[in-house]
Amino acid sequence: MRMDTDQLIRTLAADSHQDRPVGFVLALALLAAAPVSLLMFFAELGVRPDVMTAMHNPFFNLKFAVTLALAGAAMIVSLHLSRPEASLRGWAWLLMIPAGLLVAGISGEMMVPQRLPMMTRLVGHNSRVCLTAIPLMSLPLLAGSLIGLRHGAPTRPALAGAMAGLLSAGLAATLYASHCTDDSPLFVAAWYTLATLLVAAIGAFAGSKVLRF
Amino acid sequence: MREREDEWTGLMRSAMSGDSAAYHRLLKAVTPVLRAAARRGLSRAGQPIDQAEDIVQDILLAVHLKRHTWDPSAPFAPWLFAIARNKLIDALRRRGKRIFVNIDDFAETLADHSQPETASSSEIAVQLNSLPARQRDVLQSIAVESASIKDTAAKFAISEGAVRVALHRGLASLTAKLREQ
């Protein structure tokens, strides 16, 4: 059997099926993956017992602003990168929002008197759990994000994969933040960032394999 | 060039809202440009240009299956050329060649209206044979025998919906097989 280009074109024109928008598929895939991460969270960690008191602490709440800003920015940028002609130019600043919030938090903390010295706040009590739990809870979400982005046509698959990593780390860190009793922005800047970069690296590697089209 | 690209964008907008005649015209219009770019890419990489048609078909399949990523408020040409460039680089990489392909190479490419090389069997044709029977039959009927969806449904005594599904799945699995090789 042969198929020349004219025949192929006629065949393509006969196929009226159009895939759904990438954002829709990405949302579905994330919704499917979320229960797995939630299950991991409630089975192993759970919300910290003093959460009602903690909610009066602005530095506790800031953690959620940072992680959700990261997830939101990474979702917008990764959807943008799912278009073949897209580049990061004009979009990368979105990722500066969570970083900016963290810097604002750190300066805010500097201005109020603290019980604990800086190094103690930075090192915290949960760095090891933080570095394990965020990447592990990210993995199902990362798989979901990559499945969603596969419906797109990213011409920079590693970069799009890294954004999927940031998106899933942002969501996983949101869960983790409700467990962790280290609320200092210094702790967040050190350990959350490290965990997030690890997931972004995994995402970039996986993306370079699975996001080619 | 500007005029050509505006025309493409208009055709693609109609195509996306279901006008298959406009879609057909668009694909016919872009193919000579893609062919010229593929030939140039191959010759720059020191490869025989008789493989250009495989690359053109590869690009057309990707354009078709990824057309939902085109934003109707954006011009069509940059989107098309980004996909074409990606596929051309991929094709050359599979042949062990790495070359830099500039996106402007496409935008400035003149249509090449000379006849395509008639390779005895294109990559697509080879992969067609490995498709499930239903998908292959439907593709054969529509592509080679120029039958309509309706006639194809009658011929195989299946519903038109089933023909549409087999057609789309067939094109998607063809693309997947081409990527895996």
Describe this structure in words.
The complex is a heterodimer of chains A (about 210) and B (about 180). Chain A contains nine helices and no strands. The model of chain A has no long low-confidence stretch (mean pLDDT about 95). The radius of gyration of chain A is 20 Å and the shape is elongated. Chain A is mainly alpha-helical. Chain A has one domain (about 20-210). Chain B has about 180 residues and is mainly alpha-helical. Chain B has two domains: about 1-115, Rna Polymerase Sigma Factor, Chain: A (Orthogonal Bundle), CATH 1.10.1740; about 120-180, Orthogonal Bundle (Arc Repressor Mutant, subunit A). In chain B, helix 2 packs across helix 3, helix 7 packs across helix 9 (about 160-180) and helix 8 packs across helix 9. Classes of the chains: A mainly alpha (about 210), B mainly alpha (about 180). The interface of A and B includes residues 7, 21 and 85 of A.
